[in-house]
UniProtKB/TrEMBL annotation:
This is Tat (Twin-arginine translocation) pathway signal sequence. Transmembrane segments: none annotated. InterPro entries: TAT_signal, TAT_signal_bac_arc. Signal peptide: none annotated.
Amino acid sequence: MNIDLSRRGFLKLAGAGVAATSLGAMGFGKAEAAELAHVR
């Protein structure tokens, strides 16, 4: 599988991944999990 991806697109994806990982590391993931449990 070969995906055409420009350098700019790759950097956007990498930046989004790093942002999500850092938010999760700071505990935002736990807050979201608690909110989802509350909704159920």
